[in-house]
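Researcher: I'd like a structural prediction for the single chain below. Treat it as a standalone chain; there are no partners to consider.
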Amino acid sequence: MARSSSERFLKRRGDKYQFRREIPVALRDHFDGKTAIIQPLQTSDTKVAKRRRDEFVRETDRLFEEARNGRLSKPMGRVEEIADRWKEEIAAYQNDPIAWSAKAGVVVDREEDVLSPHDVIEYEIESIGTEQGEVAKGRFLDRLHNRTTVEEHVETYLSELDLKPKTIQGRRADILLFAAWATKRGSTVRTIDRRAAADFFAEVLLQMNRKTAETKFSNIKAYWRWLIERDFYLEDSPWERLRFP
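Model: Treating it as a single chain, here is the predicted structure.
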C-alpha cells in the first residue's frame, strides 16, 4: 500500500519514529555512498514526528541542492557523532588540561596557559551552522550540552504507570501540551524555571475551564516529580508554588 503524503519520509522503529529519505543516485558520492539519510526523531508522538520530519525535509532539500551545485563540503547526519567526540575531548581536558593542550599541539608549563577545547569548539559550531544549517547546529548543541527536551522521557514515564489506557492517553496529551509550548519557547527541562512555569500557567492554564486546567496542571507536576526522582532535573520543581486564584 502506498504511503500517504502526510507519512512521507516517516518510519516506525519500535515505538519511535525516524526520518528516512532516499538520496538521489547521482548525489550519493557526496554522502559517502549512502543510499538514504536516516535520523531518529526521538518521539512516538505523530504530530511531533511530523514537525521534526518537516525540518529534516527542508534541510535535506537544501543539502541536495548544494550537492547538485558542487557546494556541499561535508555529508549530513554526523552532528551527534561530532558532539559525542567533543564531549570526550572536554572530559579529557577536565581530567588533565596540560596533557590535553599538549595533544592539541600546545606545550605549556602552567595550567593557566592551557588551551581549552571550548576555544576550538566555536569553529566547529560555526562550521556546522554554515554547512548543514541551523537545525543541524541546534542538534549539535543539544547533544553537546545534554539538553533534555520536555517530551523526551514522556513515554518512559507513562510506561511505569499502572493506569487505564484512556487515563494514560489523557496524561500524555496534557504533558505534550506543555512540551509543545516549551519547544516553541526554546526551553528544555533544565531551563524551565519558576518564571517559565508561571508564564505557561498564565498564558495557557488560566485561559481554560478551572477543572480542566487543574487536571492538566496536576499531570504536568507529577511528570516533573518523576523527572526529579530520576535526576533529569536537579533543582526543586518550578510548579510547586503555583496556585489557582
